[in-house]
Structure formats: C-alpha cells, structure tokens
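Dock 6-O-phosphoryl inosine monophosphate; give full complex structure.
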Amino acid sequence: MPTLAVIGSQWGDEGKGKITDYLAEDADLVVRFQGGANAGHTIKVGNEVIALHLLPSGIIREGVLSVIGNGLVVDLEQLKNELAMLRKTGRSGEMLRISDRANVVLPYHRLLDGAEERARGNKGVGTTGRGIGPCYADKVARAGIRMGDLLDEVYLWERLDTIFPQKERLAQSLGIKLDLEKASLLRTLLEYGNLYRPYITDTSVLVNRAIQEGKKVMFEGAQGTMLDIDHGTYPYVTSSNCTAAGICNGAGVPPSAVEEVIGVTKAYTTRVGAGPFVTELHDAMGLHLQNVGGEFGTTTGRPRRCGWLDMVVVRHAIRLSGMTSLAVTKLDVLSDLPTLKVCVAYEIDGQIVEDFPASVFRLARAKPIYEELEGWTAASSKPADIIRKGYAALPKNMRKYLDFITTSSGIPIGIVSFGKGREETIDLRRRTWSR
Ligand code: GDP
Ligand code: IMO
Ligand code: MG
C-alpha cells in the first residue's frame, strides 16, 4: 500500500511545495487534506516559478490526479483564479477533483476574519486574511455551506435562510456590515457550482479505491505542526489539524492508510504572523537569513521572522505525526556562516524543558539552549558537484550539521534540498516508495 505524507514540521513555509512536487514524479494522486488559500506552496520547474494556494502541488505534473479533500475550506474565486493561472502555464487542471464535503469560504468569512483581527487589537494572530478561521468556525458550528450544496438550488436556499440571521447577529456584535443579500449570493454560488460540477465528487471513495488498487497516493500538508489547532502555539495557530492525524478526517481515509510520513524541515526556523518563537533572531543574523533565504510570505508577501533551527519544535512534530524521515530544506541559505546554532532544549524558570510547552505564557519566558556547530562555505558546496556526486560531495561541516539533526531527531534524513529547483535535491531514502 504505497502511501506517503508530506508534513510541515515547523511554522509552515518549510518547502512542502518543492518536496511534494519532487516526490510527485512517482505519484498517481496528490491529496490536500486541510487548510485553504492561506497556504502558499512555491514550485520551481526550470525557469518557471508557480505559487499554489488551493490546488495540490500534483497539478503541475501531467497525469497526476489532484484532490482537494473534505478537510479543506475552499475559496471559490481564488480557485478560479488559480485554475486560470495554471492554464496560462499550458496546463489544463482537468485532473482536479474536489470533495463534495469540503466547506466553502464565503465572502463574509474574509470580512469577519479582518474584523476579528481588528477586535483582537495588539493580541492579533496575524492571519492571512483569507477567511480561514471564520469558515472553520462555521463548519464546527454547523453553519457552513459545502461544495456539494452548490449543486442543489433548493437546499442551498434553505441553508442560507438558516445561516443568514446568525451572521447578521455576529456582524452586529463586531460593528460591521456584511452586505448579506441572499438572492445575489445564491446566484453566485450556483454559478460556481456549475463551474466546478465536473470536479466535485466523493473524494474519500476515490482516494480509498486508489489505495486499494495499489496506486501511489501522496498527502500534501499545508501550514506546519506548530500552526496546528490542537498541538501548535495556541491561540497563535491556524484553524485546522496540520499534523498527519489531519489526513484521516481531512481526506476520509483510515489511519492505516498513512504509511510513510516525511517531515519537511527548514534548516533554520521561520514564522510569519504573531506568536512565540523561542529561537527568533532580532539581530543582523535574523536579517541575513531573511534576505538570503528570500523569507517573504508566498501568500501575503509579509516578511517572515527568522531564527535558528529548533529541535524542540522538530521533535514535537516528529512525535505527533509519526514522521518516518525528514526532508531538510534550504541548507544552501546557511552557507558562508562561521558558526551555526541549533536549539536542543529550553530553559524556563531555571528548569530544562525538552518537550514543547502548551502555554504561550510559559514560552514567552523560555530561553533557548544552543549547541554550536561549524559552518561551511558556498564555494565548497557547488550545486553542479553535488548533483553529480550526491551526498559525498556535501561539505564536511554540512554533513556534520545533518548528522546532528539525525541524532537529535532520532529519525533519518531522507531528502536534502539545497536550492529551489527539482534538481537541487539529494534523495537518500531507502527506495521503498519511489523509483
Ligand atoms: P511551503 O509553504 O512549505 O510550500 O513553502 P513556501 O513555498 O511558502 O516557501 C519556501 C520557499 O523556499 C519557496 O520560495 C521555495 O521555492 C524555496 N525553497 C524550497 N526549498 C529550497 C531550498 O532548498 N533552497 C532554497 N534556497 N530555497 C528553497
Ligand atoms: P503554508 O502551507 C506560514 C499563519 C498565519 C497566521 C496563522 C493563522 O504555505 O506553509 P490563518 O490565515 O490560517 O487563520 O492564519 O497561521 N499561516 C501560515 N504561515 N505558512 C502557511 O501556509 C500559513 N498558513 C497560515 O500567518 O500566523
Ligand atoms: Mg508557504
């Protein structure tokens, strides 16, 4: 049963898009299972750079069925724009399938996202403003519209009748106007229903059948473990389960369906939005990582906060998702630094802490305990040499850095990425899944 999951082990933007695209060469299906257009997954193919928000990264590869699972929240307009962008690149998007059970981000969800952020004042989460939180809140409150509903005018009208009064009360309490107009929203939703009709289906049936037939199925995570609604730095998190556990609910597959879990880990740490970040660097080194790493959000363009690699975070992620190996990305960004630091534990109120604490209050007092490692020069890690010779061509100190991560994490490194392109990748996995 060849299935594989790609999960972010930090605060998102670890390079999941690149790694998913790289692995999708061998895949039959790529399935997204949570999140929405808050994600920004960048893929570089030759000179082409493609940023995907809702579409699974498999859409770039010919012949790969790309599934938007029931666990997503779908922004109808964003999806239309993304499909148009894809067509401009000469790809059809025909291999897309959308779950009939995925919830729909409605125009008022974006407005509520903004209003709720403003109401939080200086305690804002720093959301992407894509309506994600309000849409998931409606899902749980049983006040959502699902993709399948867009195909049924009578039922949709009935749903809007139930939902609108609730929204009106909420808007009033936040002091905003939502311009709720039932007939025009209904028209818009039905139009989108027609547009997406060919893609909407029971994707749980589709994915489970594919697994049973022995097809190669990949699950592509969005965001990262530390943004998980249960296990992240709550309340500075997103509103879905970003760990591997989210796959079961969000794709409609049993736990036994997830065989291999690759944790994508940036060689340092970044975070966009508010919330605790123990290894954050507020100095020139932080700016260096931001500039060299091009650390600006794919979705919002915001600068990403940068800091050293935090193994307390990575170990938390490995445990929660049962990660079987790591894909370490952006190693090239750490070139030419004399020394590198890796956080191995925190000190909080005089105590050594190795397991990630639940309370952001405690985290605010956490001091990183670092191990120092020697750096390497860019000249000693020429991509052409590495591509030809593989792991052995990596500079000695880069290998030491990777060895340190392996020892500290307790799981092997399967993939090493040292550039944006597909070819700037070394694959060290036992070839169980691919090729
Ligand atoms: P995702 O959200 O996890 O898919 O990551 P993003 O696409 O938001 O951000 C990762 C950024 O790093 C993208 O611009 C990628 O093209 C880029 N990237 C991925 N892997 C590497 C790498 O190994 N080296 C460098 N320099 N850039 C990389
Ligand atoms: P990918 O898939 C990084 C962050 C936001 C904010 C918090 C909540 O590209 O890794 P939301 O809009 O989800 O309610 O915002 O989560 N966030 C991300 N940060 N990468 C992402 O996705 C993110 N998606 C959401 O910045 O702090
Ligand atoms: Mg991203």
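Observed: The chain has two domains: 3-92+202-427, 103-196.
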